[in-house]
């Protein structure tokens, strides 16, 4: 089975109200307790990245739920617009976004993978997002600026 490595649109980054864990031995994936995402721009994608975090629109979350694709957790996050965003886009509104935390794990070696947990949404140790073909088909409409790389099973 093929999986797909995603590189979603980056529209900004962690804002000043992001809360980080400060514990010894905490992996980077687990280092954000609360996400404040500050937009500097936005090309319109419904899946956004700011390593090691991802956010999705409420609309995309509802589509995944309707299709019974629930291999991620949703957390509230704070979304704001930077001065740069305001200058570029004026009063352009943003949809509701939530933090999306994949439940699955996978290891990537080059353009292949092993140790796949079987989830539709997975993270690698380096916080890369890996998804199934079923998810990619949805993202073709909702994440047009997301780079997608096919990876194959390491047999």
Automatic annotation (TrEMBL):
Name of the protein this chain belongs to: Uncharacterized protein
Superkingdom, natural source: Bacteria
Natural source organism: Cohnella rhizosphaerae
């Amino acid at each position: 089975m093929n999986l797909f490595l995603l590189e979603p649109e980056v529209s900004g980054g962690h804002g000043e109200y992001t809360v980080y864990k400060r514990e010894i031995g905490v992996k980077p994936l687990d280092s954000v307790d609360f996400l404040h995402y500050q937009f500097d721009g936005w090309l319109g994608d419904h899946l956004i990245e700011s390593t090691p975090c991802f956010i999705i629109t409420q609309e995309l979350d509802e589509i995944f739920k309707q299709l019974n694709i629930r291999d991620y957790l949703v957390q509230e996050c704070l979304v704001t617009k930077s001065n740069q965003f305001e200058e570029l886009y004026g009063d352009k509104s943003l949809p509701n976004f939530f933090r999306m935390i994949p439940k699955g794990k996978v290891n990537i070696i080059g353009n292949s993978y092993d140790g796949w947990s079987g989830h539709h949404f997975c993270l690698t140790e380096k916080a890369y997002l890996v998804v199934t073909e079923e998810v990619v088909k949805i993202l073709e409409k909702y994440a047009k600026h997301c780079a997608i790389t096919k990876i194959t099973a390491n047999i």
